[in-house]
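Q: Got a minute? One more chain.
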Amino acid sequence: MNHYIRLLAVTLASIFIKPIAAQVNVTDSLALVDLYNSTKGPNWKHHNNWLTSKPVSKWYGITLTNNHVANVYLGDNNLVGDIPESFGNLSALQTLDLSYNQVSSLSDSFANLSSLYYFYFNNNPLINLPDNFGNLSFLYYLDLSSDSLRSLPESFGNLSSLNRLVLSGTQVTGLPESFGNLSSLQILFLTNNQLNNLPESFGNLPALSDLELSNNSLSNLPES
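A: Always. Here it is, folded:
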């Protein structure tokens, strides 16, 4: 009798526990569906298992942690379009690689990605960042090189955790005065831009140790 009870308990556990463990947060899964639809998912180079009955953890480029989307790796994958509003609901997202695509804009809700640590967005036709981009207070590494950026928002200086910034090969002609507030910035690449001046606050970057400024139109540098 005791053997039967133990067997029944194991069976019930397999029924009720395993499906729960396999689930992904519904809000996260809906955000991924919106991303697929807004960037012409059927035309991606790789979209294995997307929008199928396969678990989200099996979708190409997606990894989960504790049933939440933790990493999205969709670089060089022919994404074309805009990042949808719902994408900002990925509260556990740590790494986002959308480099070498044709993504032209980020929604204002993008700044809600409170856990974002690595953001690779180089080689996209992005012209502007959302005004509230500086809300990404956990962001450590940012690559926007070879984008079509023309300016950075004033809130950019609020990126208090930013350590490495790659802005080479854009159309940026100047940096916001708040840039000098990037207290954690150590590595900065600004080569091959159209910079003609730097803000006075640029000399206030306390942690800066590696700076590349070649191939710009700068006539002088601010005093440190």
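A: The radius of gyration is 22 Å.
Q: Perfect, thanks.
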